[in-house]
Amino acid sequence: MNKPLRRIAIFCGLLVLALLVRANWIQYVKADDLATHEKNRRVSIERYAQPRGDIIVDGKSITGSKATEGTDYEYKRTYKNGEMWAPVTGYASQLVGASQIENLEDGILTGNDDRLFFRRTLDMLTGKKKEGGNVVTTLSESAQKAAFEGLGDRKGAVAALDPSTGAILALASTPSYDPGVFAGITNKDGEEFSKLDKNKDKPLVNRALRETYPPGSTFKVLTAAAALEHGLVTDIDAKTDTPLPWIMPGTTTPLPNEGNIPCKDATLRDALRVSCNTVFGKIGADLGKDKMLETAEKFGFNEEQFTPVRSNASVFPKEMDKSQTALSSIGQFDTAATPLQMAMVTSAIANDGVLMEPYMVSQLQAPGLDTIETHEPKKMSEPLSKENAQKLQQMMETVVNDGTGSNARIPGVTVGGKTGTAQHGVDNSEKPYAWFISYAKTAEGSPVAVAVVVEDGSADRQDISGGGLAAPIAKSVMEAVVNNKK
Amino acid sequence: MSSSTTQTSTIGAIGAPSRRNTELALLVFAVVIPVFAYVNVGLAINDEIPTGLIGYGIGLGLLAGVGHIVVRRFAPYADPLLLPLATLLNGLGLVLIWRLDQSERLQQLSMKAYGTFSPSAPSQLMYSAIAIAFFVAVVIFLKDHRILQRYTYISMVGAIILLLLPLVPGLGADVFGAKIWINVGGFSIQPGEFAKIVIAIFFAGYLMVKRDALALASRRFMGLYLPRGRDLGPILMIWAVSLLVLIFENDLGTSLLFFGMFVIMLYVATERTSWIVIGLGMAAAGAVGVASFASHVQARVNAWLDPFSCYADSGACEQIGQSVMSFGSGGVLGTGLGQGDSDLIGFAANSDFIFSTVGEELGLAGVMAFFLLYALIIERGARTALAARDPFGKLFAIGLTGAFALQVFVVAGGVMGLIPLTGMTMPFLAYGGSSVLANWALVAILIRISDTARRPAPAPAPSPDAEMTQVVRP
């Protein structure tokens, strides 16, 4: 009986060997995959095992952490004035994960980043608990407050940039949400989140970065830049050859102006001041889609921006006929832009033609407040020459001083701007979007460029205009920044 | 001639030292290692040496000491490794259960489900004490394992009754879909654990008698010796019982264990490979047949194939997924006792899934060490079977050892995602009185057989016949 006994013994040995091989497979070969698997709650348990690092604005943290009871997670994220800052911070929820800065800089905030490896090892040896680092943002509390409170109960978004660096100063979106209400993992957090998620006003969407709107007349600034850059117009005070009415090429349809405004052969400056569709439509058609596209893309259209939070790509259509090009050049047809994009256009003009990459994280700090990384402002492109930029500045200043943008005037400060009232929906049936883009300029250059969009369902159709709804918000944001600098 | 024969048997007598002192030394380790593990858990979780340390250390030491003294007195030639190995695994199991008792997550889960939480470690300590008492009783009262041979057919009836008890209305209890428990006087008992041993008695007794008929009366067909139809009867019956257990009790593990054990013993008894082929064929046919219509088996198989694809919808998938992630998160060195999150598995974390805690907190290194401990028990069991002098003892020992090996493979393979999960418990580690009791009884029997096997032969009888038998002894 001993021969089969030995074989059985070998068989049992093989069973154990199979177990050993399997153990090596899942605990060595596949260990990392399993340890960081999306379903592995250890990842988030560890994320909340210590107070999370903070997000800093103007030297003060806009986030916090508090100890929790009765869940897997020891600490929970808290937010100070969460609704106002939500478009900047995003959320860090134990239930639904993290978004925006909370997600992108998670490594720093939790202390797991590779750049903190040495410190972590040191802490482990000295028995110190792991800590998260801080993320310092470029935002300005007063500008953000002005933007958020200016939007108030209306739907809309504001993006403000420092033209000389590309630093984002304000990024507001309304209606907003308080990321603190679903930061935990309880049923209540879940209910709050699904309530927000199902809300038809989409409070979870960061309109400043992720929503593209038809830019309407504000886009004429870009068309004017294209006309100057491509040499179609050199003198902004010379008459353009624009008939009234102007029939769009290839069609029998005249392009209408808003109201009875003096657009026949208007100068570029006047055309922008009173917002002539005919003049800018004709410029677009005359330049052709390729030249328009070239300029639009230099300003950042058709490309996502990473601030590092991603913004959706604004759209300038690539395939169009002449009449569609005309419509696109006045911000209609398929042209669509994020508020950030329009702020970028304004900032490039205010910064004498140089477009800086927009960014909102200026510094990453290790737990001991040592700086790990500092953001250096980067030039993105030069969509127009200094000379042409200054011509455009003059035109935009005229808009504010003698035109549709008078609501944005600030005593003692040079302001340039452009209004926009963008129609949308089938046959323009829906309530239009009110736009305003502007910059302020002091003796030291331009400290702020801002884009405001208000999509207001409650106002009367007639009252919705860029100058009426949006310009005052832009004004208070600019004032906040200018006053900060003083 | 006479002198050389005498010399051989004399060497046999002198050359087989009892090794009791080896056992004692190993037992010291088997007690000290869990005590250190206990301290480790206390420091990791509460930052203090657990208050129950002295009681636990003395308790485990006492149990081990009693076991050792009884073995020294009643089975002096027994294998010296079995008792320390079982003690070590039982002690570490207690530590792991105590560690999981400290888990707030499991406490909350229990509060939510039953409105109360009671720690498992004290009960497990009590079960261990009862199990050692049972062990002692077996070693003392089972003077010779061959006595069990008399109860061959009673064992068969007993085993079948034990297996089918959970199906009796009012007695059986349905725990998470598996009907392998019975409730008697407030206690839950898993009769299948005991049936494992009882049925091994029947198999060993039956096969010893029938081995010649099964081995020799056969026809050759395609290189295989096929048994006669009437000899197929018993294997068909065992197969049917296995399938019944599988279908009606939802217990994949037990049915696999019994059938596997029978095939192993049949092969050893007859030395016919054909039985293995037939056995595997029948097992495969049964498994595929049952899996094609039994939804719970399908669920288990799906959970095994890809636990993450059905993670959100199926409890079976989530358990396996959690378990596998537990092993993966442990990595090579583990998180250290008390510092892992294996309690995320939830229910059955300290019974069916206790090995996941080993995987996460002791890492690959700890898992391999545990496998080697189990492998050593298996090796000592196989060695005992080889050394046993009587066919009944050989069959009995290899049956128990094979069943033990299969159980370890099926449970560990299940929680690691190597094979579909079955509802069985890791011997000695898992929480559960029946399991501890049955496995200590199993070790007691192996100790008895090994004592008989290694015991010096009685002084050579003057009769030449007796000398003849001495010579052919392996």
How is this structure best described in words?
The complex is a heterodimer of chains A (486) and B (474). Chain A has 486 residues and is of the alpha+beta class. Chain A has a domain at 209-361 and 378-485: DD-peptidase/beta-lactamase superfamily (Beta-lactamase, 3-Layer(aba) Sandwich). Helix content of chain A is 39%, strand content 19%. The longest helix of chain A is centred in the N-terminal third of the chain and has 28 residues, at 2-29. The model of chain A has no long low-confidence stretch (mean pLDDT 85). By secondary structure, chain B is mostly helical. Chain B contains 17 helices and 5 strands. Chain B has helices at 2-15, 20-46, 53-74, 82-101, 104-114, 121-141, 152-164, 191-216, 232-249, 252-270, 273-293, 295-305, 315-330, 354-387, 391-415, 433-454, 464-471; strands at 172-175, 178-184, 187-189, 218-221, 224-227. In chain B, strands 1-2-3 form a 3-stranded antiparallel beta sheet, with no helix packed on it. Residues 1-14 of chain B have low confidence and may be disordered.
Distance between the termini of chain B: 19 Å
Let me know the largest β-sheet of chain A.
Answer: 5 strands, mixed
What is the name of the CATH superfamily of the domain at 209-361 and 378-485 in chain A? DD-peptidase/beta-lactamase superfamily
Largest interface: A-B, 37 and 49 residues
Shape of chain B: globular
- Ends distance of chain A: 100 Å
* CATH architectural grouping of the domain at 209-361 and 378-485 in chain A: 3-Layer(aba) Sandwich
SS strand fraction of chain B: under 5%
Write down the CATH class of the domain at 209-361 and 378-485 in chain A: Alpha Beta
Radius of gyration of chain A: 27 Å
Low-confidence stretches of chain A: none
Which range best describes the helical content of chain A: under 10%, 10-25%, 25-40%, 40-55%, 55-70% or over 70%? 25-40%
Percentage of helical residues of chain B? 55-70%
**What integer value in Å does the Rg of chain B equal?**
23 Å
Task: Tell the overall outline of chain A.
Answer: elongated
- Beta-strand content of chain A: 15-25%
Protein name (chain B): FtsW/RodA/SpoVE family cell cycle protein
Membrane topology (chain B): Multi-pass membrane protein
GO molecular function (chain B): lipid-linked peptidoglycan transporter activity
Organism (chain B): Streptomyces albidoflavus
